[in-house]
Amino acid sequence: MSTREVFTDRLQAGVLLLPTMVVSLLFLYYPTVRAVGLSFYRASLARGDVFVGLENYRRLASSPEYLRSLLVSVLFAACVVVGVMAVALCVSFLIHEIDVGKGVYLVAVIWPYALPPAVAGLVFLFIAHPNIGIFTSYIETLGVDVNWFSNGPQAFVVVLIAAVWKQVGYNVIFMTAALGNVPESLTETAELDGVSRTQRLLRVYVPIISPTLVFLVIMNTIYGFFGTFAMIDLMTKGGPAGATNILIYDLYRTAFQFYEFGFASAKSVVLFVAVGLLMYGQFRLSDRYAYYGG
Q1: Which residues face 158 on adjacent strands?
Q2: Phi and psi, residue 43, nearest 5°
Q3: Where residue 285 falls among pLDDT bands split at 50, 70, 90?
Q4: Which residue ranges make up each domain of the chain?
């Protein structure tokens, strides 16, 4: 290949990458750098920007409301990951086991994921509304007083169920594809050995599709921390009494309700670092426990 052809190929690659780089610089890298810088200021619309050093971070460390929001966020994200993975794995296995109507079942499971988060939140709000919800009367026949507008634990559970319902379809897409790549000979051997369906799923399929499961754990963790904002905003607005006030929503309120942009920037930096460290830990664990063949 001549030097001119190499230059032409590189120039073409650079031109094709230019729009992505421009968008990334304007809407990803610059806002990140700006947020880090702003976290060292007391920034507000009324008083302007005043350099305060690490004061915003000290406020975070000594704020019981923020620490509670952190605990709520970790608990919520953990429940989302476990709930989504468990439900999606069972549903994917059942779909994988059938031969007739598989496409219909896939569409029925996946369609909630196609809904925007705000729409999914509104749909589930009316499904589980304490007064007019479709399922509310059935739940109350079991002796449960449904009033999650004022009951913190109930609100946490309702939002959690909505978040799991919204994300299951995304996981099913990947899990069914991974299960479809499992060699048929393994399934036949397990059946001949008398292995039950449950044992076949847990002892045969799960280790083989573990790289896909690791990827989904990471994506579900990101979803649990960031992707449920619209649902919480529409369904509970962080309440009642902060029961669903996860970090991303607490950050939003600090910036756009209380207009403390410097303090909100510090919260965003802490959230970014915390989730980044969590992702790093998950990647390290995946190298140890995921099966990549060989």
Answers
A1: none
A2: -110, 130
A3: confident
A4: 63-293
Q: How many CB atoms lie within 10 A of CB 207?
A: 12
- The residue ranking higher by pLDDT, 49 or 152, is 152
Residues in the chain: 294
Beta bridge partners of 48: 44
Residues 6+ apart with CB under 8 A from 230: 116, 117, 118, 120, 121
CB 147 within 8 A of CB 130: yes
Pairwise CA distance, residues 207 & 282, whole Å: 17
As given in the structure block, the two tokens for residue 175 are 């899990």
Query: Which residues, in sequence order, are bridge partners of residue 50?
Result: 42
CA-nearest of 82, 80, 108, 83 to 94 is 108
Q: Is the dihedral of CA 271, 276, 279, 281 positive or negative?
A: negative
Question: Which of helix, strand or coil describes residue 228?
Answer: coil
Number of Cα atoms under 13 Å in the Cβ half of residue 284: 6
Distance CA 94, CA 76 (A): 27
Q: Is 101 helix (H, G, I), strand (E, B) or coil?
A: coil
Q: Which one, of 82, 161, 153, 85, lies nearest residue 124 by Cα?
A: 161
Query: Which residue has tokens 């007391």?
Result: 42
Over 70: is that where the pLDDT of 6 sits?
no
Distance from C-alpha of 292 to C-alpha of 55, rounded to nearest angstrom? 46
DSSP result, 233-266: HHHTTT-STTTT--HHHHHHHHHHTS--HHHHHH
Using alpha carbons, list the distances in angstroms from residue 44 to 2, 49, 61, 247, 256. 58, 7, 21, 20, 10
CATH of 63-293, one of 3.40.50.10070, 3.30.360.10, 1.25.40.10, 1.10.3720.10: 1.10.3720.10
